[in-house]
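Weekly modeling sync, notes
Attendees: S.R. (lead), two postdocs, one rotation student

Agenda item 3: backlog of single-chain predictions. S.R. asked that every request posted to the team notebook include the full sequence so nobody has to chase files. The rotation student volunteered to paste the first one in as an example of the format we agreed on. Action items at the bottom.

Example entry:
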Amino acid sequence: MKINNQQIADLNKLEEPDHSIAFDFLASGLQKKGMETHKIVSKLRDFQVAIPSWALGAGGTRFGRFSYGGEPATLEQKLDDIGILHALTDTAGAVSLHIPWDIPEDYQAIKEVASSHNIVFDAVNSNTFQDQLHTKNSYKYGSLSNTILDVREQAIQHNIEVINIGQKLGSKSLTVWLADGANFPGQNNFQKTLENTQNSLKKIYKSVPDDWKMFIEYKPYEPNFYSTVIQDWGTSLLLAEACGEKAYSLVDLGHHLPNTNIEQIVATLLYKGKLGGFHFNDSKYGDDDLTVGSIKPYALFLIFNELVYGMKNNPNNPDLAWMIDASHNIKDPLEDLIQSLEAILIAYAQALLIDQKKLKDAQENQDVVRCQEILQEAYRTDVRPLIKESRLQSGAAMDPLAVYRSLNVRQTLIKERGKNSTATGL
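Predicted structure, as returned to the notebook:
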């Protein structure tokens, strides 16, 4: 299924009169505060978020998985689904592949499918947290940190293979996430596993092309529950610095213990020039992989406040890679991704409204109340007219979720693919 521009334009016309009133009202108010609305709208138009290839089917837990029907059974179909998202939002212009779940059989054909949807290939993701078919060694007791050299070498070669796949597609970055760790005290020697991991990452780093980046992800627990080798941002940063200037930390919003001050982590990594990218999701308890902004929208806004500040004031930090990393167990995956894209843009737009000069003055004068008021004034502003305007200007749907349902996208996908199709890699 492919959504054409005329379908979107026809449905936008129904909403344009009400939107025009709301947008003019908001723009007038922002102009009185000295804000240039057209610049904010332009930044929203330029913002692109990568869709991971594993997020397009129904997710699940160890207790069960509930298919939604019409799932993409091939990589081509996954790209088609991202094409639908991009046509509706003009914000999903990239795909992040997971290897070996989504290895192309015909690279040129896959590139042509992606190009037909105006989609580029973002970071490629390696997988050493599962044993794969036709591999000699098991990752049951770790991969890059394993005590057995042959296991470590196998994991290293897999990452190098992922880089080679990414080069064929035009990707420019590799994401490494490790499940390595221990379930019980005494199971591992902490220093030795960290040393093995560092040495393994250095070997992978040598194969990273000069114009690439390597992102090192971290997570405090799961699937191991006593310890994780790369358990926090500090360890990730330590390893990135050990590898070299092309290596960076990657922040996944679900990969923190409850109530962690993620915005401070973001600020620190930006200050050090070592924040490589973001995996967006939301959580109540841990790595819940819930829809972005569904649980802690204010926390997301505060994170974007640091991101907006850092992108302007930390030229030593490269452009950031943005990706959604969520699991959709009871929602239509495409609807969930639309909601996540909306939440990301809302938080970004709100952060763009913060008067950084006034905030700096209040901070330097130690006016704590004023600092809070400046932040919350931006957060409480309904910025949806700005997002709708950015989409209207780019030819996307002003209300992507409403258009998605109006066009009966899921029902059409079920007719095309069947009710029992299952997404690859799940």
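Discussion: group reviewed the output briefly. The mean pLDDT is 96.
Action items: rotation student to repeat for the remaining queue; S.R. to check formatting next week.
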